[in-house]
Amino acid sequence: MKKKADAGYPIKTPQQLGAVLQGFRKQRGLTQAQVAHVSGLVQSAVSELELDCSTASLNRIFKLLAALDLELVVQPRGASAKVSEW
Fold it and tell me: Structure pTM?
């Protein structure tokens, strides 16, 4: 998972999101159990999110993002510049 630090990771499918979340967790040397503890989720929920986020609630996804110190950025496809504030 070596990309430019500020480039981000475009996510177009739930499976891609799970793989990126798993990559960040492993990069930080954390186990699913450790992330589960920090996020308030159970380990099996973290595992399910990493495998396939397609049935996950946004609440669970945001808990996992917060536990990994990540944020969700929404932008037009192919956009490289930051979208203006609403």
Answer: 0.80
